[in-house]
Write a structure and sequence with these properties.
Length: about 300
């Protein structure tokens, strides 16, 4: 289990980097992660100002334990090259690349990042520019997240993830609005027709042991609809939900937090496996229930996330 995998990402709030009021407000919001957007939420004429806002905001700091992420403009665009310069100065925890569609995008990004002086984290489990990151330590450098929101990405997801010798992604973020726009498939009816693609993204993330975040719920006044979709996200195996409005943070945190019962069960599993008689056991009897080592790994991850939430 990598350190990043154990980081809580229940509530991942986007905000337009062109909006100083939203930036200011985010320092007091209870979200796990803030994504400062330079792409879709920022009008072309406001891009320069948005980058200046970020430089000032990161210099002032004050984001506490919240994970910070900057979403760039389209790979290869002039704005994106300027975004990378801003990221080099701001040093957020991660960069979120929009519309990643094929390994070539990652090859181009790796080159541009190097030219901008960015030091990338490959992944907590693998090499980082030749250094092995010891387990349990937060890797230094910039993590790379990818938006999965194009038809090309949906059909070529495994090639993208298998390009990890170029850039090892730490997190996939579903862009439901762009998927619906590009395919014409309606996101309605509890996302019935999007479901195979969404589950494909979740499965690919699990295969590569990286985080996966669900898309946004646009109608932020419809709290009932938001809660229903967030409960669906949890059941689908997502690690958290991307959000657009502060009112979505509390329900997302509540739904994605491990329950008291789940925490207690996890503690019991860890305690049982640490007994001397179970040290070498692959499977044990815990109060009449079969528990295997795979449950121990699940329990450890859940407790690490719980610890992150309480920190
Ligand atoms: N992050 C931080 N603060 C936010 C916020 C966000 N995403 N969205 C709204 N707020 C703040 C507002 O500034 C306002 O603060 P204040 O009343 O204390 O001054 C408060 O929350 C209430 O906002 P409200 O009036 O309900 O909404 P709005 O009209 O200001 O904004 C949106 C509505 C949709 C424009 C705004 O929520 C937004 O920009 N969301 C993010 C969009 C985005 O980043 N999209 C890209 C990815 S899909
Ligand atoms: Mg998009």
């Amino acid at each position: 289990m990598s350190t990043d995998q154990a980081r809580p990402r229940r509530s991942v709030l986007y905000l337009p980097a062109s909006n100083p009021r939203a930036i200011e407000k985010s320092r007091d919001l209870e979200c796990d992660t803030i994504v400062f957007d330079l792409e879709d939420a920022v009008a072309p004429a406001a891009k320069d100002e948005a980058r200046k806002n970020l430089l000032a905001a990161f210099q002032a700091a004050g984001f506490g334990t919240r994970e910070t992420v900057i979403r760039t403009n389209a790979i290869g665009s002039d704005d994106y090259l300027n975004d990378l310069q801003t990221i080099a100065t701001c040093a957020p925890d991660a960069v979120l690349l929009p519309k990643v569609s094929c390994p070539t995008d990652l090859i181009a990004f790796a080159r541009d990042a190097r030219q901008a002086g960015l030091k990338l984290v490959r992944s907590a489990a693998t090499e980082s520019d030749g250094d092995i990151v010891p387990s349990g330590q937060i890797p230094s450098g910039l993590a790379v997240w990818a938006m999965i929101e194009t038809v090309a990405a949906l059909t070529g997801l495994h090639q993208i993830l298998e390009a990890h010798s170029v850039v090892a992604l730490d997190c996939l973020v579903v862009g439901t609005n762009d998927i619906a726009k590009e395919t014409g498939v309606s996101p309605g009816n509890q996302r019935l027709y999007l479901m195979p693609w969404l589950m494909g993204i979740v499965l690919a993330a699990k295969q590569h042991q990286i985080s996966v975040l669900d898309g946004v719920w646009n109608d932020f006044r419809d709290t009932r609809g938001f809660e229903a979709e967030t409960m669906q996200s949890l059941a689908m195996g997502f690690d958290g939900k991307t959000l657009i409005h502060p009112s979505q943070i509390e329900p997302s945190n509540r739904i994605f937090s491990p329950s008291a019962q789940a925490i207690q069960e996890a503690q019991e599993i860890v305690a049982a496996f640490s007994l001397p008689e179970h040290h070498r056991a692959g499977v044990i009897n815990l109060n009449g229930r079969m528990v295997e080592r795979l449950h121990l790994e699940q329990a450890q991850r859940l407790l690490a996330i719980h610890q992150g939430i309480c920190a």
